[in-house]
């Protein structure tokens, strides 16, 4: 039987809809054009101790450094570079140097003097004898509200290291390497093109190759020996289109090793060749084997190129055939019936439902979040990314030797503009990022590179419907997301800081982008990957993200309480024995006791506590560190190239805070994995840890076996990494119970969820945040 809707109900509904149509939801001030703050407001913003450098400060520091005669620095973007002059002194990067923690806390918590504001600069000193890499500090002053003044050049150790300088051939990637690669390839240019045209149907490399062009790309740098201190693995590809197509998954079965001896650029040459599963010492040997058809090298060589719709596998062009959702191309969209419940201040200070924090970034390491507070109490002084590793495996030349440490390439400097409605919801506010990296001559302004938005996770934070139907109680879920995306060559890292209304904090990184591919062989299915196209396979690789978490629970005197999960015995009540779950809590006395790799056979739950601060039940207040996807380093103990991967040795490690131990990895580790300037293993040295200022170091990782569904790019679903910080006796009850939308429904109290009345208040409207296609080209 059909139930009829009473006419009075229809009338009420019509009135509500008419009222809603007449209203517009509160929104961000129109002058902000979707930004958290306007450019004018940003320029007027007072500088705080947590503020990253702004445009005019970068310019002041760069101008000051160029004016120091003893440094002999040049602007490489305005310098004519030749083989004789390629070894230059130049500024590779500039970033804000966070003051010593004690000075910051004295200023912020006790109204002490504001610490001196300084910038750190990375200088590549190619003209020195011997050439070297240094770091210096520059003091910034801004008296009277005028332009910043840079002064006081200060020589310092390499960041997070005792090294006063770094060997020249551990420098970050720059123009010298590009010159070296060109020199190496030009020495075999004619022979290379003879072979390419013969093997690849008339395609060639370099100038005048149109319309049949072959491109090249490079993997990681390696220090192979004291003689060969700089080497690069190069692979060739055949692009389908100039734009909108990923050359990363169009590789040819041709790879080379280019290397130079010590600091001599003219010595660069191709020292090893790999073609279709065979290794050769020179191009002459490769050509001779091809002409002689050695081992069927020529007659057995076939490349099956995709045709028709299959050619679209590496791009985002529309596929032929019917489209799912064509009649309803947009799904549910969030809106804010009472306006934004969060705010973004002038210095990237974000506030939301009792949470406050400063959002920042470093050009090499990426995002950092400072002075994170909940309900007025500092939970963490700093939460910052330390490294993003991608380590590959294969039986060819390039993939087998590829280990990327993305701090070297610039995680923070690779942030890109976000697209409204896709990267971030329509309700998001946006912030810009400013970096100075990779030998630039001016700061790079990354428009709309950070977005902030409130998100309804669609799962209640608290919820129970009584078994006897007596009551229903709940607190609706609510989270705030701070998002930035780094695009480092082929890969995209979507980094979220997620704050919950119950005091939980989650750091989540989702991976996407193109896989790094190679020529497919049947044996690959058993070891390294599955085909993406007829001749092409993605390559097995490992992703690891490393983070620093400087927790301050109730102050800076904290301890680590490790709960060892065990199996105990009990009586079943009838004289029998049963096994039960239990834990044994043990406070780590030293750093060695608080550093371990996750083991399924010996699970541990670490909690950072304030032993002297108790909740009302006498339990030490604390936060649990929940490792959401720990990964074990499978490389053999003591393996030489693992020294730069010290952040992978421990799933969880806690050390005593030291300003000199600011990072667990280094931009200089990429070029020499066997001798990094910084390693987390050096920090874990047995010092007392109990009731100290505790810093936690965690990692999260995944193994990626490429499959057909990784074309055109890797899906974000199922590919998340991260960790959570969860209140652990920090409060006396769930911190979510003071939420205004908490509800209890009983037989006497027919409460209505707040959302059901809120949605009738207004119709959503959104600011239009234009996609500017803004970006920058590195030097």
From TrEMBL:
Modified residues (2',4',5'-topaquinone): 491
Limits of the Copper amine oxidase catalytic domain: 334-736
Pfam family, one: Cu_amine_oxidN2
Cofactor: Cu cation
Active site positions, chain numbering: 406, 491
PTM per Swiss-Prot/TrEMBL: Topaquinone (TPQ) is generated by copper-dependent autoxidation of a specific tyrosyl residue.
Domain Copper amine oxidase N2-terminal: 87-136
Cofactor, free-text remark: Contains 1 topaquinone per subunit.
Name used for this protein in its record: Amine oxidase
């Amino acid at each position: 039987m059909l139930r009829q809707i009473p006419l009075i109900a229809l009338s009420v509904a019509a009135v509500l809809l008419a009222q809603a149509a007449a209203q517009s939801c509160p929104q961000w001030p129109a002058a902000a054009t979707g930004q958290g703050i306007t450019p004018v407001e940003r320029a007027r913003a007072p500088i705080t101790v947590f503020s990253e450098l702004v445009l005019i400060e970068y310019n002041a520091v760069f101008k000051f450094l160029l004016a120091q005669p003893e440094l002999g620095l040049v602007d490489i973007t305005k310098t004519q570079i030749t083989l004789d002059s390629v070894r230059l002194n130049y500024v590779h990067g500039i970033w804000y140097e966070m003051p010593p923690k004690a000075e910051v806390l004295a200023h912020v918590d006790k109204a002490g003097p504001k610490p001196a504001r300084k910038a750190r600069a990375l200088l590549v000193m190619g003209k020195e004898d011997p050439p070297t890499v240094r770091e210096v500090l520059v003091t910034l002053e801004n008296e009277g509200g005028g332009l910043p003044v840079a002064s006081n050049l200060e020589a310092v150790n390499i960041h997070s290291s005792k090294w006063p300088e770094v060997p020249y051939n551990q420098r970050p990637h720059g123009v010298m390497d590009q010159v070296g690669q060109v020199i190496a390839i030009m020495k075999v240019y004619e022979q290379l093109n003879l072979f390419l045209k013969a093997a690849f149907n008339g395609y060639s490399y370099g100038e005048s190759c149109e319309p049949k062009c072959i491109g090249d790309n490079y993997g990681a740098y390696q220090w192979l020996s004291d003689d060969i201190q700089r080497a690069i693995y190069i692979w060739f590809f055949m692009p389908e289109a100039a734009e909108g197509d990923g050359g990363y998954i169009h590789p040819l079965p041709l790879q080379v090793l280019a290397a130079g001896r010590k600091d001599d650029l003219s010595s660069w040459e191709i020292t090893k060749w790999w073609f279709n599963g065979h290794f050769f010492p020179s191009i002459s040997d490769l050509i001779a084997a091809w002409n002689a058809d050695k081992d069927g090298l020529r007659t057995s060589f076939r490349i099956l190129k995709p045709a028709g719709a299959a050619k679209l596998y590496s791009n985002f062009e529309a596929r032929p055939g019917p489209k799912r959702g064509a009649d309803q191309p947009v799904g549910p969209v969030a809106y804010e019936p009472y306006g934004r419940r969060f705010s973004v201040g002038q210095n990237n200070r974000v506030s939301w439902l009792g949470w406050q924090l400063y959002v920042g970034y470093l050009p090499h390491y990426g995002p950092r979040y400072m002075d994170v507070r909940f309900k007025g109490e500092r939970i963490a002084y700093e939460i910052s990314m330390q490294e993003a590793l991608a380590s590959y495996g294969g039986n060819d030349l390039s993939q087998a030797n590829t280990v990327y440490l993305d701090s070297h390439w610039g995680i923070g400097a690779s942030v890109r503009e976000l697209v409204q409605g896709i990267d971030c919801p329509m309700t998001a506010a946006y912030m810009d990022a400013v970096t100075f990296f990779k030998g630039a001559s001016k700061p790079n302004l990354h428009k709309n590179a950070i977005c902030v938005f409130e998100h309804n996770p669609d799962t209640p934070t608290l919820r129970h419907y009584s078994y006897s139907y007596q009551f229903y109680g709940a607190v609706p879920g609510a989270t705030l997301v701070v998002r930035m995306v780094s695009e480092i060559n082929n890969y995209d890292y979507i980094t979220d800081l997620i704050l919950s209304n119950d005091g939980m904090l989650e750091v989540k990184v989702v991976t996407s982008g193109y896989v790094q591919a190679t020529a497919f062989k049947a044996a690959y299915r058993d070891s390294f990957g599955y085909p993406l196209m007829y001749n092409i396979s993605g390559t097995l690789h490992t992703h690891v993200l490393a983070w620093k978490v400087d927790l301050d629970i109730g102050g800076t005197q904290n301890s680590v309480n490790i709960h060892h999960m065990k199996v105990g015995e009990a009586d079943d009540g009838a004289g029998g024995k049963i096994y039960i779950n239990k834990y044994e809590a043990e406070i780590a006395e030293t750093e060695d006791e608080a550093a371990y790799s996750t083991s399924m056979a010996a699970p541990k739950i670490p909690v950072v506590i304030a032993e002297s601060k108790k909740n009302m039940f006498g339990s030490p207040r604390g936060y649990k560190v929940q490792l959401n996807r720990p990964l074990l380093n499978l490389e053999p103990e003591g393996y030489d190239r693992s020294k730069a991967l010290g952040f992978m040795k421990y799933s969880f490690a806690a050390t005593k805070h030291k300003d000199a131990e600011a990072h667990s990895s280094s931009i200089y580790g990429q070029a020499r994995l066997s001798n990094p300037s910084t390693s987390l293993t050096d920090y874990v040295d047995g010092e007392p840890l109990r009731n100290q200022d505790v810093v936690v170091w965690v990692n999260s990782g995944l193994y990626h076996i490429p499959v057909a569904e990784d074309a055109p790019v890797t899906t974000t679903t199922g590919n998340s990494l991260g960790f959570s910080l969860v209140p652990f006796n920090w409060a006396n009850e769930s911190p979510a119970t003071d939420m205004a939308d908490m509800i209890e429904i009983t037989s006497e109290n027919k409460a209505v969820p707040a959302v059901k009345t809120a949605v009738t208040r207004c119709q959503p409207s959104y600011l239009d945040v234009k996609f500017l296609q803004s970006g920058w080209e590195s030097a």
